[in-house]
Amino acid sequence: MREMSFSQAIEDALTQAMEEDQRVVIFGEDAHSLRMNLYTRFGERRVRPAPISESAFVGAAVGAAMAGLRPFVELIMIDFLAVAADAIVNQAAKVEAFSGGRWKVPMVVRAGCGGGYGDGGQHEQSLWGWIAHIPGLKVVVPSTPADAGGLLLAAIADESPVFFLEPKLLTDDLLDALGSGGRTTVTYDIPTEGQKGMVPDRWEPIPLGLAIVRRTGSDVTIAGAGVAIHRAREAADLLSGEGISASIIDLRSIAPLDRDAVLKDVECTGRLLVVDDDYRDFGLTGELAATVLESGLPVRFARVAVEGTIPFDPARERAALPNVDRIYEAVHRLMQ
Amino acid sequence: MLDSVSLYRKMLTCRRVEEAIAGLWQEGLISGEMHLGIGEEGINAGVLDHLGDGDAVALDHRGTAGMLLLGVDATAIIKECMGAEDGLCGGMGGHMHMFSKDHLVASSGIVGSSGPAACGFALAAQHLRPEKVAVAFFGEGAMNQGMLMESMNLAAAWDLPVLFVCRDNGTAVSTSSSSVTGGSLEERARGLGVPGKCINGVDAEVVWNEAAAMLDRARSGRGPSFLRATCLRPQGHFLGDPLIRMVHKPIAEMKPRTGPLVSSAISSGGASIPQRIACIGKIMAMIGRAARTQLGNAYDPVVRMRKNLKITSIELAGLEEEVELAVKNALEKALLSVPASIKEATQ
Predict the structure, then answer these.
(1) What are the pLDDT digits (tens) for B264-296?
(2) Residues 63-102 of A with CB under 8 A from B
């Protein structure tokens, strides 16, 4: 085992994938400076800076994947997906279905997601619910360095278009560039267990669509992904001091969604709280509510998610994103 | 007629307000990214000096100076940058997403989106405000964005009164724009039916004169134009730009990067040695480009404008004192009401 930061884990796993498979090529905005080490080692043919033309280079990734490469696209932030929406929603997502399963699109789009560092509502969205809404797309959201590397390998090996979303609050390089900018006068509420952690000596893929139980409890099940897992853990510590025992299920993958893992735990606790850094309406929280409802299990349900455009003002931003207080209060409401 | 003194006053005001914002950012009173227009005052002021009531402007993520030049209150802008409840947009937008309906000015942090917005503003002008125009500001990096190219074609097809202003500093975040751009930008605009010109954006008078002709054309119903104005931005893409940090503190900034870089260069497996050397050369060139933004006065539009002023040194000193005082007052006023929550959240 080695200790690595979230960003190091991603780059390390990416290096392994590029060593193992010549078809893996990286391109996207500022790929040469973002991936300076890979650029130096694998050259410009495999690590290529792109113009600010999301619809062109994401669209090109679809074609390249269809024609034999395994493109790894650097989109910087998932908010920019909106610019490349056609390539994803109408092209990448449809090829396998339209070809009767005969032609696949093995591509990965990596993008930063989420807020907590004051970048405003156009650069801090999570949007995985939007991606997961479209049949044919997969989306993963790691919460630890070990998961980041393992899920990244699985994403690259997968035959479908996969979004690899990287919570910016956990990644030191993105957070340094976009948040602090070298300043020591700002601090962010960074979950330390997510930003650094032990990783395997050699990466093994973590199957997509497999949740992991981070904590076992008997009173309430808290499900979520990414930063939410760390906030939930902190809330669960507080709650356990009051005799309330919470399970935490790290979904890791939003699509495919490990519904069974959630149902299995809810069967024991009878209460489900979904914590989501994405928008509340028509998203992951509603999807899991439908899942338990369809299962017929007797369950009380609550959710903590982003309810509107994320405010720039740091104080209101903190209140808008799922935080420990909101999770704590929601659990108490469920326990009443 | 060009009033050089007035233009200089505007440019200096932008510079001082943006320096004040940079100070607040350094102190930690502003969260997240901060894209300033220091080095672009000649372009911003040279174009916007021609605008009046009823004209509309679409700004990008670097819109603070544009807002000021259109008459938006400096205190409200500074407060918005800090996220204050009584800021220009109630603290909801921050510096990248400022709006003032009264001034018909909007901004967006999505690269290239000012093009379509300006087309819409111009279409509304055609219907509702004859002889009024719309201006779109963007960087040369945005020229490769589909929506911007589409909006140029739309403006040409519909004879929309739009001026497309491209502030060209040669670098898209960290990427050399020429390395990811085919052909010439003026030819590209011309190909889409929008006549264009490239000028030295450091010279505000040149910008002013060219913008005057292009805006006249738009006002008289002869359609859109494209103005590419070159500039240097000493702060890079945003405050704390890693490349600029490398230039200023090469040892501290390069030290953690050097080990992995050397190991990447010599690891077995990967590109050929000449290819790797070429990549290292390009990384050095990228840092070199950042270093060239620190050339100082020769490329400073405010310094250049000041040199050409035909006023006495006493008048000049008086003007500068007035600007300093006005900006100081605006800043003090903005700082009076910084909510404790902002200080807490950022410090």
Answers:
(1) 999 999 999 999 999 999 999 999 999 999 988
(2) 79-80, 82-83
The CA distance from A214 to the nearest CA of chain B, in Å, is 29
Q: Does B269 touch chain A (CB under 8 A)?
A: yes
| SS3 of residue B235 by DSSP | coil
Report the residue count for chain B.
347
Residues B280 and A47: their CA atoms lie apart, in Å, by 13
Contact A52 B282 (CB under 8 A): no
Q: Give the nearest partner residue to A311 out of B91, B270, B346, using CB atoms.
A: B91
Question: Residue A314 is nearest to which of B245, B269, B345, comparing CB atoms?
Answer: B345
Model confidence pLDDT, tens digit, residues A205-238? 999 999 999 999 999 999 999 999 999 999 999 9
Partner residue opposite A185 with nearest CB, options B26, B181, B271: B26
A189 touching chain B per CB within 8 A = no
Least confident range of A177-191, A209-223, B163-177: A177-191
Residue environment code for B114-136, b if the CB has 16+ CB neighbours within 10 A, otherwise e: bbbbbbbbbbebeeebeebbbbb
pLDDT, tens digit (0-9, with 9 covering 90-100), for A261-320: 999 999 999 999 999 999 999 999 999 999 999 999 999 999 999 999 999 999 999 999
pLDDT band at B338 (very low <50, low <70, confident <90, very high): confident
Q: Which residue in the set B83, B175, B243 is minimally distant from A312, CB to CB?
A: B83
Structure tokens at B141: 């990096």
B180 CB within 8 Å of a chain A CB: yes
Q: Is A123 one of the annotated active-site residues of the chain? A: yes
Pick from B119, B77, B116: nearest CA to B98: B77
Long-range contacts of B177-182, Cβ-Cβ distance < 8 Å, separation of 24 or more: B177/B140, B177/B141, B179/A49, B180/A49, B180/A50, B180/A51, B180/B144, B181/A51, B181/B140, B181/B143, B181/B144
If residue A149 lies in a helix (H) or strand (E), which one and from where to where?
helix A145-157
Structure tokens at A314: 């740091």
pLDDT for the residue A33: 94
DSSP β-ladder status, A300-306 and A271-279: parallel
Residue B26, chain A, CB below 8 Å: the answer is yes
Instruction: Please compute the mean of the pLDDT values over residues B120-138 and round it to a whole number.
Output: 98
Distance CA B38, CA B215 (A): 24
Q: Which chain A residues have a beta carbon less than 8 Å from that of B84? A: 313
State whether residue A312 sits within 8 Å of chain B by CB.
Answer: yes
Integer Cα distance of A225 and A250 in angstroms: 5
pLDDT at B295: 82
Average pLDDT over residues A95-101: 98
- Inspect the interface and report whether the beta carbons of B31 and A186 lie closer than 8 Å: yes
Residue B226: pLDDT over 80: yes
